[in-house]
Amino acid sequence: MKEITSTDFEKEVLKGGKVVVDFYSTECPPCEALAPKFESLASLFGSEAKFVKIFRQQNRDLADKLGVKSSPTVLFFEDGKEVGVRLSGGIRRHDLFEGMKALVGKEKVKEIKLQIKPETSQYDVAILGGGPGGLTAGLYLCQAKVNTVLIDVGLPGGNVSTTHMVSNYPGFIDPQPGYMLSHFMSEQTKQCGTSYKVAVDVTHVDLVNKKIVLDDYETIQARKIIIATGTSPNFLGVPGEKELKGNGISYCATCDAKYFGEKEVIVIGGGNSAIEEADFITKFASKVTIVHQFDKLQANKTAQEKAFANKKIGFMFEHEPRSFRKSGNSVIAEVEDLKTKLRKELVADGVFIFVGLKPNLSLFTDKLELDNWGYIKTDEDKRTNIEGVYAVGDVSSKKYRQITTAIADGTIAAISITKELD
Ligand SMILES: Cc1cc2nc3c(=O)[nH]c(=O)nc-3n(C[C@H](O)[C@H](O)[C@H](O)COP(=O)(O)OP(=O)(O)OC[C@H]3O[C@@H](n4cnc5c(N)ncnc54)[C@H](O)[C@@H]3O)c2cc1C
Whose CA is nearest to atom 7 of ligand 1? Predict the structure, then answer.
């Protein structure tokens, strides 16, 4: 892999024919995750294009001139012109192949992909999911000298990395930015020696035979598997929702309600969590408006009575959100009256959406025993019904889903696995 500087850019890139450029930085976990994928891309497409790396911190002027704002950023050049789409963040192998299509054409990419030789690697334990549960399991296993690989479809950190501030994680006097907390957790596990396969496509998982296929051709064969894939909130799927997530729209009252002291908040939903969480939010907020699609609440009677008796809570039945946008520090929610079809705008300081959570289980085709809500049942050592398969954290059946309970699960599974392997 050729490393160039801004001085060589004109000769090597602008006059270099077909060139793929990786702007990287040091102390950059997504850059480390990209490095082996970029190397392997270079060896596959070496006869079709040139691959170069540029150290962004030492070539800042060039990066600024090209509008490269984050590391890593991969750019594709043909005869001095940038082609295709720039890639940045947690870049997957799939994204790189897509990028190569702009440079060498779809057919060539297809032909070269067929030449990829499948690889198999053996581990004692494979952890699926790099949130607090998976990272803690990885740390304990690594310290017990168990050969472990941690696999994540994104970058490690899980839901914590998207949390603005975490104030209930023991050991810190002041609230910690979620991304820093998850960065420290991840680095601790990585520096211990757990292997990382992150920003990968998990193509297939065979829990019974303990085989996990990544990016179509890399097979991980393990003796034990820990499922730590967490949950994802159900989204409403309306315009503006994803853009304002973490910046006016939240899916976790325990985490974020305290930032709305004496503020006005909208809660979307009418089930148990929406109503219970709305009640909790009124400990901080001055006013909560519940927007619900039906003409009555779906929450249990006790929760309903409590909410109706709470003077800070107002209700807007038979209304549904249609879009969200930001205006200064306020969030504007456009809602539709389902009877009259008329739309109006509600102004609030924040919006909480509770339209359900779903465990990330879509990849597992084996018969995992689930509870009534679709979460994986485990015994007290976090074993599932499938021999050698464990489940930890939010994806497992439990009453309280927090960072501390996920790391507790990871600890328990790792210690029991270590004892079993011994
Ligand atoms: C917005 C928000 C704020 C929160 N704030 C707090 C707080 O302040 N305090 C607190 O204690 N808790 C908080 N929580 C809850 C806390 O984040 C979770 O309880 C905790 O992260 C659960 O950890 P986990 O490891 O089980 O799963 P997650 O953190 O959900 O991590 C799961 C990981 O698995 C990966 N993954 C998913 N599918 C696959 C797959 N098929 N293969 C491989 N990897 C996969 C994901 O990319 C992710 O990295 C918050 C949650 C949210 C959503």
Answer: 255
